[in-house]
Design brief:
EC 1.1.1.44, NADP, 6-phosphogluconate dehydrogenase, decarboxylating, alpha/beta, pentose shunt, Pgluconate_DH, binds NADPH dihydro-nicotinamide-adenine-dinucleotide phosphate
Amino acid sequence: EQARIGVTGLAVMGRNLARNLARHGHPVALYNRTPARTRSLVEEFGSEGEFHPAESLKEFVDSLERPRRIIIMVKAGAPTDAVIDELVPLLEPGDMVVDGGNADYRDTRRREKALRQQGLHFVGSGISGGEEGALNGPSIMPGGSAESYESLGPILEDIAAKVDGVPCCTHVGPDGAGHFVKMVHNGIEYSDMQLIAEAYDLLRHAAGKRPGEIAEIFRTWNSGRLESYLVEITAEVLAHTDAETGKPFVDVVLDQAGQKGTGSWTVQNALEFGVPVSGIAEAVFARSLSGSAELRAASRGLPGPAETWLDSAASDRFADDVEQALYASKIVAYAQGFNLIQAGSKEFGWDIDAGAMATIWRGGCIIRASFLNRIKEAFDSEPGRPTLLTDAHFAEALGNAQAAWRRVVSTAAQLGVPAPGFSAALAYYDALRAERLPAALIQGQRDFFGAHTYKRVDTSGSFHTLWGGDRSEIPAD
Ligand code: NDP
């Protein structure tokens, strides 16, 4: 008997994905460049299902039923190309190659095109949830042809996380759509984490609460509208004590955040498309700033405000304010991320169903949250909506939160606690609301120094003012 699906690349992700497939009754072919990984998988977990280990790529390919379904789970970038190049000569028209790594969607577009020309289906699939998700149910974001999804979809939906019986997997769209959506997912994750970190920082360094107390606050929040995996694990991390020193764990960890690059990809793409994702950008920059050890050391002596703490009465009320600011800022972060998905979808003709993306993020992935149901409803009621912020539920929540949100941002500024995520989110909200923006002045400046021309509010066409002459206005086109 032949295997229904194959996995090549059996490090943590590939191994767990293969086990997940086998546990769901799908016979899985296995191949890894270094055979020791294949052998140890079968030795340790062979009893979990039907595995077909192979020691050569040819043997692996031959062990699969046709058309073949192959998931590549290797290091993103050049290794993925190397594996594809090795694999393609062994395949036949109609075979399907899934890249489950964190690929750049532009690479996915290139690979999809190349394989399509050879009669093969290439499926760039975002997979979120880390190793735990891969084993017990990830959120899966597959791109590629509709035809390949017909064959792969049922298997992927089978192993994906389920929420209310609905799988966290759907066909995202053609070629790079899946990896694009995965990239934005990661950008939103950055933003979400940054906002939570700012909430903690304010409770700690403005309201004077201890990590253990803040853990309790997060626990309470996790039973309300902020219920999410990230808020849940935040409480766990804050409650944890370092065994060595007896200090709060958060105090013994070096405060320099790492990043693997998908947050910055999101921002780079947003810059290219001209989509303001200020919350995600601030989150990426906040990590970069945290890691700028030399810059921080040189700046440590700069003066701060005289007052650095809230008084105790204010600090008791403050936690509620921070909850409001966090919820409002989170709405903004998601609104910005979804705008980027819509922009990518438009640019590449992907026709992505935004509401369906909210649905498949409800489980399995790092940003899973009950709040995503609201986002789904918002897109169901108006699929092409310009922004999530104007959805009735979110608009009301923002309206109710705004006074507290403003207090939090101004408190942060007054007490000298950096809150770039909260501040950027509020500025975005106010800028979108504004009747008039100072962009009119910028147009004036651009016309003054560069004759870049401007449009008028009261008539059509472009104009230029003769700034160096008699300052009369002339039509510019
Ligand atoms: P790694 O990214 O560490 O990649 C290791 C695997 O790649 C090994 O199987 C290795 O084979 C193989 N490999 C590397 N170079 C080559 C090559 N030139 N030819 C053949 N095989 C090669 O593994 P992970 O499991 O952490 O991640 C796999 C993919 O999943 C990555 O793209 C990652 O970004 C993505 N991902 C990871 C998540 C995570 O939480 N770790 C979450 C979501 C996605 P060998 O054993 O022979 O060295």
